[in-house]
Write a structure and sequence with these properties.
The complex is a heterodimer of chains A (about 425) and B (about 525). Chain A has about 425 residues and is an alpha/beta fold. Helix content of chain A is about 45%, strand content about 15%. In chain A, strand 11, helix 13 and strand 12 form a beta-alpha-beta unit. In chain A, helix 10 packs antiparallel against helix 11, helix 10 crosses helix 12 and helix 11 packs parallel to helix 17. The two termini of chain A are about 40 Å apart. By secondary structure, chain B is an alpha/beta fold. Chain B is built from 22 helices and 16 strands. Chain B has a five-stranded parallel β-sheet with strand order 12-11-10-13-14, sandwiched between helices. In chain B, strands 3-2-4-5 form a four-stranded parallel β-sheet, sandwiched between helices. In chain B, strands 7-6-8-9 form a four-stranded parallel β-sheet, with helices on both faces. Classes of the chains: A alpha/beta (about 425), B alpha/beta (about 525).
C-alpha cells in the first residue's frame, strides 16, 4: 500500500523500476489547468460541475489574484440536488442559461466534471449533448473530467484536449502532410515555433488548443503529431485514433530538448540537414549563450523534484545536461514511459524516479538527502524554506513561457533565482 | 445548483482545518480525494505560515473507489498518529468523502488510538467554512472542558477572562488579539486563555477557570461561548470592539462583567474621533457607502461609517446567514433593507443599483468595485495575501480605529481635488478618466471611457425606453463628477417618470436636483 520504509538510493532506480507510492498526494487536481486554458482559448467558458470545494480551490489557487470576472465558474451541487428534490439536469440547464445570458460572447461551453459529479455519476456527456441541441451551432459544448480522483494538475489539460480532438475537422481529401503541435503554449512561444517551422518549410502547422474555438486545426492520416508537453497521453491516443502519426522526441526545454524536438519534425518532413542546421543555428547559439551564463552558478547543485505536473523528467534532463546539476530524485505524478523515453535516454541510468507520492515519506527522503534545491508545490515551499532548504515552486514551470530556444535562459533563470535571492538577503527569518 | 463565480466561504472542512491549524497539538485527519490538499496553500501562501498545517489527507483516487477507501483511511489515521504524536485527533470528511460515506468517526474509534479522537460531522452540501470552524471549536471545547455533573455553578464577577474566536486565516485576527489583550489588561483584567489561536488542548481544559469569556468573532466562537455559559455558568461579552464607539461599549461591558467601577476604566482613545471631526473630513459627510462582509465586520462597519465618519449608508449586507437577524436589525436602524446573500452576482447587482461612492467589502467586492470604478476598501474575509500584512494592523480596539480611518478614507478622492473637479471639467490631466492623483496611476483606457456605472456595468442598468435625454441635458449631466453622476442620473430619471416627463431637459435635471436636495 505504501512504499518501503527504507530506500536504497544506490541500487539504481531508473525509469525501469520507479518507486511507486501510495499515500498522501500533495498535488492539485485537474481542475487547476482551467487557470491557463481559459486564457489560451478566449472564446471558451469552463463550467465546473462540482462542490463549494471546487469553487474554493479555483479562487484560492488562482482566482483571487485575478481582479476581473474570469471565464470559468462553478455550478455548485447542493443538498436539494443530492436529495433528488431537484432534477440535476434541469438545474444544470438553468445555470447554463443564466451563464450564457450573462456572457453572450461564449462560443465554446466546456462542462468540467469534478470528484462529486463523478462519484454521483452525473452524466455530463448527456448534459453537453443537450446544451449543444439548445444553443448550437453558435455555441459548441464539450465535457471532460478534471476531478482529483482521476486527474492530477496538468492531466486536466490532457483530458480537455482529448475531448477537443473529436471536434477537430477531418483533413481535406488529398491533403499533403501537415504538422499538429499539441499542448498549450504561451502565445510568444507558439509564434516562435511557427516561424521556425515556416523557415524549415514544414507546414501547414496547426496548434492544439488553438486560440479560438472557431479555428480548430484539422486531423487525419497525413497529420504528424508533435507533443509540446509531456502530460498528453490521452490526447495523443485520441489523435492517433484519428490517424495522426506521433513523432516521438524529447520535449522542447533547453537548447538540446528544443533541437531534438524540432529535428523530429524536420526528419518527418524530409528537411535537409544543412537547412535544419542553418535555420536552428542562431537560436541554438543564443540558447547556449543564455544558459551558459548561468551554468557556473548552478553546476554541481543537487536538485530534488517533487511530483506536480509530469514536466519533472524533462526539467531534470535540462538541469542535468545543460546546467550540470545532480538529480537526487525525480518525482512525477504519472510516468508515461513511452512518451518520456527520449528524456530518460539523456539522463543517467541510475537516476532515482518516484511515481505517485507518500508526501511524508518523500519529505523524509528529501531531508535526509539535504539537496541544494527542491522543486515543489506551494504547500511545501515555505515550510521547506523555513527549514533552511532552498525551493523553486513548480507551478511556475507551467505558468511561465519556458519552451524553445529563446526561453532556455529564462528557464535556467527560474532555478538560479532562489540562490541569487538567498545571496542578497542579509536578514534571517 | 448555484452558479458561482466567486464564493464567500470555503466548505466546512476548511473551517475545521483553520481550527486545527490555529492550535498546538491538534491534528486533523481528513478523508478527501486527491487534490483537496490545495487548502494547504491557504496557510502556507496566503498566511505565509512557515510550517505545514497539521492536516493529513487520505487523497483517494478513482482506482481506490473500487477497493477499500475505508482501509486507506485507517492506514492514514494510524500513520498520522504515529508520526505526529498529537494530543488530540480530529477526523472528518470532505464533500466527496461525504458521498461515499466511510464513517471516519467509526473507523477511527475501531483503531483504539491512545489519544482522544473527535469526530466531526461537516455537512458540505449544506454548511460552509465559518460554520465548520464554529462546530469544530465547539466540539473541542466540549471534549476538553467537559460539563460538570451537576448544574452550572453561579459565578460572581471576577477579573479573569478568556478571549475566544481568533483563528488562523482570520481577517486581522493576529493583531486584533494583541490589541484586545492590551485593552483588557489595561483594565486590570487577566487573560486566562486565548483560543483557538495558539491554544493547546490543556488550555481548553483551563477555560472553565476564567470568570467570563470575551467573544471576538461570534461567527467562530459564538456556539462554544453559549455552551460554556450553559454548562460552566460563564457569562460572555460579545461586543466586537471594532470602531471608537464599539470599543467604548466593549470596555464598559467587559468592566461590568469583571465587576470593575467606572473610575478604573482608562480614558484611552483612538485618534479617529478627532481626525473625523477635523475640518479636512467635512467633505466625507454624506458620502454614499455600500457595506458587505461577514456579519460582525459588516455591522461594525455600518456603525463606524454612519456615526463616526458621517457617511450615508446606501447598502448593508452579509453572507453569514446564521447572523441575518442582527444584520437586518442594523440595516433597519439606517432605514435600509439588508441584503442577506452568498451569491456574489446578487451583491454585484445591489451595488450597481445603490450607486455608492465607496464600497466597504470583501475581496469579491473589490472585483466588483474595480469593474464599476468605485473606490473600495476591504473590511472582512474572504481576503487575499495583501490583507495579511507584515505591519501591525488590527481592526479592533484603539489602534484598530486608527487603522480603519486611514484605510477607508484613502481610496476616496481627496477634498481639494474633488472641488477642482467640480469646477473645471475639461482639464487634460485631472479629469473623470484619471484616477485620483494620490493613487497610483493606471494607464488610461483608450477612447476616454465614461466612468458612469451604467456604462461600465454593461446592460445591468437599463434606461426606461419611454424616457429620453435631450442633448443639452445629457451634456450637463456629464459636468457632474463621475462619483455622483450615476446617482444624479438615477434621481433625474426617477423624478421624470414620477412627474410624467417624457424627454429630460436641462430644466428637468435641475428640477430633480432641487426636488431631492442634492
Amino acid at each position: 500500500m505504501t512504499g518501503p520504509a527504507t530506500i536504497n538510493t544506490t541500487s539504481g532506480c531508473g525509469p525501469a523500476q520507479p518507486l511507486r507510492q501510495r499515500g498522501q498526494h500533495e498535488v492539485f487536481c485537474g481542475l487547476t489547468s482551467i487557470i491557463w486554458l481559459h486564457r489560451k482559448m478566449q472564446d471558451a467558458f469552463f463550467l465546473i460541475v462540482g462542490s463549494r470545494t471546487c469553487a474554493h480551490l479555483m479562487q484560492s489557487a488562482a482566482g483571487v489574484m485575478i481582479f476581473a470576472e474570469p471565464r470559468f465558474a462553478t455550478a455548485i451541487i447542493d443538498e436539494r440536488d443530492l436529495a433528488g428534490m431537484a432534477d440535476m439536469h434541469d438545474e444544470l440547464d438553468k445555470v447554463v442559461a443564466r451563464l450564457l445570458a450573462r456572457r453572450p460572447d461564449i462560443r465554446l461551453l466546456v462542462l468540467v466534471g469534478s470528484c462529486p459529479s463523478e462519484v454521483i455519476k452525473l452524466d455530463l456527456a448527456k448534459a453537453a449533448e443537450r446544451q449543444c441541441a439548445l444553443y448550437g451551432p453558435r455555441v459548441r459544448c464539450l465535457h471532460y473530467s478534471g476531478s482529483g480522483i482521476e486527474t492530477t494538475f496538468t492531466q486536466g489539460e490532457d483530458n480537455f484536449l482529448a475531448a477537443l480532438v473529436q471536434e477537430l475537422p477531418e483533413e481535406p481529401a488529398g491533403a499533403g502532410p501537415s504538422l499538429l503541435v499539441a499542448g498549450a503554449l504561451a502565445d510568444v512561444v507558439e509564434d516562435q515555433f511557427r516561424r521556425i517551422f515556416e523557415a524549415l518549410g514544414i507546414g501547414p502547422v496547426g496548434f492544439l488548443p488553438p486560440r479560438a474555438s472557431t479555428a480548430l486545426p484539422h486531423v487525419g492520416p497525413n497529420t504528424r503529431l508533435l507533443l509540446a508537453q509531456p502530460f498528453l497521453g490521452e490526447t495523443a491516443k485520441a489523435l492517433e485514433r484519428r490517424g495522426a502519426r506521433h513523432l516521438l522526441a524529447p520535449f522542447p526545454l533547453g537548447e538540446e530538448g528544443t533541437t531534438a524536438w524540432l529535428k523530429a519534425a524536420a526528419d518527418a518532413f524530409g528537411v535537409e540537414p544543412g537547412r535544419f542546421a542553418a535555420i536552428t543555428g542562431p537560436g541554438r547559439a543564443r540558447a547556449k549563450l543564455a544558459v551558459g551564463n548561468l551554468r557556473t552558478e548552478l553546476e554541481g547543485k543537487r536538485v530534488f523534484l517533487f511530483p506536480d505536473s509530469q514536466i519533472e523528467p524533462s526539467v531534470a534532463r535540462f538541469l542535468h545536461r545543460e546546467l550540470g546539476c545532480d538529480i537526487v530524485e525525480i518525482g512525477t505524478p504519472f510516468l508515461h514511459r513511452h512518451h518520456l523515453a527520449g528524456e530518460f535516454e539523456l539522463l543517467p541510468d541510475n537516476v532515482f524516479v518516484s511515481e505517485g507520492q507518500d508526501v511524508d515519506r518523500q519529505l523524509d527522503r528529501c531531508r535526509a538527502q539535504k539537496p541544494d534545491l527542491v522543486v515543489c508545490g506551494m504547500g511545501l515551499a515555505n515550510p521547506l524554506e523555513a527549514e533552511g532548504i532552498a525551493t523553486k515552486w513548480s507551478i511556475e514551470l507551467v505558468f511561465t513561457p519556458v519552451q524553445g530556444y529563446e526561453q532556455a535562459g529564462d528557464l535556467a533563470e527560474l532555478f538560479m533565482r532562489p540562490f541569487a535571492r538567498r545571496q542578497r538577503l542579509k536578514v534571517s527569518a | 445548483m448555484q452558479l458561482t463565480v466567486w464564493t464567500y466561504e470555503g466548505p466546512p472542512h476548511v473551517g475545521a482545518m483553520r481550527i486545527a491549524a490555529s492550535m498546538r497539538g491538534v491534528h486533523f485527519l481528513l478523508h478527501a480525494p486527491q487534490g483537496d490538499t490545495y487548502a494547504d496553500l491557504l496557510f502556507t501562501m496566503i498566511e505565509r505560515r512557515s510550517t505545514r498545517p497539521p492536516v493529513t489527507y487520505t487523497t483517494f483516487q478513482a482506482r481506490d473507489l473500487g477497493s477499500d477507501t475505508a482501509e486507506i483511511f485507517k492506514t492514514a489515521c494510524r500513520e498520522a498518529v504515529e508520526r505526529f504524536r498529537p494530543d488530540a485527533l480530529l477526523v472528518g470528511a470532505s464533500c466527496t468523502a461525504e458521498l461515499i460515506q466511510d464513517n471516519p468517526g467509526g473507523l477511527a474509534a475501531a483503531l483504539n488510538l491512545d489519544i482522544p479522537v473527535i469526530n466531526l460531522e461537516l455537512p458540505s452540501y449544506q454548511k460552509k467554512e465559518n460554520w465548520g470552524a464554529a462546530e469544530t471549536f465547539y466540539r473541542l471545547v466540549r471534549a476538553f472542558a467537559p460539563a460538570p455533573a451537576g448544574p452550572a455553578p453561579a459565578r460572581a464577577p471576577g477579573r479573569l477572562c478568556n478571549i475566544l474566536g481568533p483563528t488562523s486565516l482570520g481577517f486581522r485576527h493576529r493583531d486584533d488579539v494583541t490589541e484586545v489583550r492590551k485593552l483588557v489588561e489595561s483594565l486590570g483584567i487577566t487573560v486566562n486563555a486565548v483560543a483557538p489561536l495558539g491554544a493547546g488542548v490543556a488550555d481548553l481544559a483551563r477555560l472553565p477557570e476564567a470568570d467570563f469569556n470575551i467573544v471576538l468573532y461570534p461567527e467562530i466562537a459564538g456556539v462554544a461561548a453559549e455552551w460554556l455559559k450553559r454548562n460552566h455558568g460563564q457569562p460572555f461579552v460579545a461586543v466586537p470592539p471594532i470602531g471608537a464607539l464599539a470599543t467604548g461599549d466593549f470596555v464598559e461591558a467587559v468592566a461590568a462583567a469583571a465587576g470593575i467601577d467606572g473610575q478604573d476604566v482608562p480614558a484611552a482613545r483612538s485618534r479617529l474621533p478627532w481626525y473625523s471631526r477635523s475640518v479636512d473630513s467635512t467633505y466625507l459627510t454624506g458620502k454614499r457607502v455600500f457595506i458587505f462582509g461577514d456579519a460582525t465586520h459588516a455591522v461594525a462597519a455600518a456603525r463606524i461609517a454612519s456615526r463616526e465618519l458621517g457617511f450615508t449608508l446606501c447598502g448593508l449586507g452579509t453572507y453569514s446567514r446564521e447572523f441575518a437577524r442582527e444584520v437586518r436589525a442594523a440595516a433597519a436602524e439606517h432605514g435600509i433593507e439588508a441584503l442577506i446573500s452568498d451569491d456574489h452576482l446578487a451583491v454585484e447587482e445591489a451595488i450597481v443599483a445603490a450607486q455608492p461612492e465607496l464600497v466597504l467589502g470583501t475581496q469579491m467586492e473589490r472585483h466588483v468595485a474595480k469593474r464599476l470604478r468605485i473606490p473600495c476598501a476591504v473590511i472582512s474575509s474572504p481576503v487575499h495575501v495583501q490583507d495579511f500584512p507584515a505591519r501591525y494592523s488590527p481592526q479592533m480596539g484603539i489602534e484598530g480605529a486608527n487603522v480603519i480611518f486611514d484605510s477607508w478614507v484613502h481610496p476616496l478622492m481627496m477634498g481639494l481635488e474633488e472641488h477642482l473637479l467640480h469646477m473645471f471639467r475639461e482639464d487634460f490631466e485631472f479629469n473623470d478618466a484619471a484616477q485620483p492623483s494620490h493613487l497610483p496611476q493606471a494607464t488610461p483606457a483608450a477612447g476616454a471611457p465614461d466612468r458612469e456605472m451604467a456604462t461600465a456595468a454593461g446592460p445591468l442598468i437599463e434606461v426606461p425606453k419611454a424616457l429620453a435625454w435631450a442633448d443639452d441635458a445629457e451634456r450637463e449631466l456629464k459636468k457632474i463628477p463621475f462619483f455622483v453622476r450615476g446617482k444624479a442620473r438615477r434621481n433625474t430619471e426617477r423624478f421624470a417618470s414620477e412627474t410624467g416627463v417624457r424627454t429630460i431637459t436641462l430644466e428637468t435635471l435641475y428640477d430633480a436636483k432641487a426636488h431631492f436636495s442634492r
